[in-house]
């Protein structure tokens, strides 16, 4: 069972001003003011706890 769904993570980034800049395979690339955050999108697997906290750190939200 995953910690957070990909949709929850994407909504959080969009709400905080990040823009979807591209996608390579199953990885979404978001950018805001020079910060780049990569979110893995492996379907129903979701995002695990460590990956979620890493995304928050990269985004400057933690």
Radius of gyration: 11 Å
Helix proportion: 25-40%
Name the strands of the widest sheet in spatial order: 1-2-3
Mean pLDDT over the residues? 95
Shape: globular
Structural class: alpha+beta
Distance from N terminus to C terminus (CA atoms, Å) equals 23 Å
Show unreliable segments.
none
**How big a fraction of the residues is strand?**
25-35%
Largest sheet: 3 strands, antiparallel
- Sequence of secondary-structure elements: HEEEH
Beta strands, count: 3
Count of DSSP H/I helices: 2
Brief sketch in words of this structure:
The protein is 34% helix and 29% strand.
Structure characteristics:
three-stranded antiparallel sheet, 29% strand, 2 helices, 62 residues
Walkthrough of the structure:
The protein has two helices and three strands, in the order αβββα. It is of the alpha+beta class. The termini are far apart. The protein has a three-stranded antiparallel beta sheet. The longest helix is centred in the last third of the chain and has 11 residues. It is globular and about 35 Å long.
SSE inventory with pairings:
Blueprint: H1 6-15, E1 19-24, E2 27-32, E3 35-40, H2 49-59
Antiparallel strand pairs: 1-2, 2-3
């Amino acid at each position: 069972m995953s910690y957070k769904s990909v949709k929850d993570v994407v909504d959080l980034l969009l709400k905080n001003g990040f823009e979807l800049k591209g996608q390579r395979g199953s990885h979404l690339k978001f950018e805001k003011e020079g910060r780049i955050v990569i979110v893995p999108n492996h379907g129903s697997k979701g995002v695990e706890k460590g990956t979620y906290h890493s995304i928050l750190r990269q985004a400057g939200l933690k």
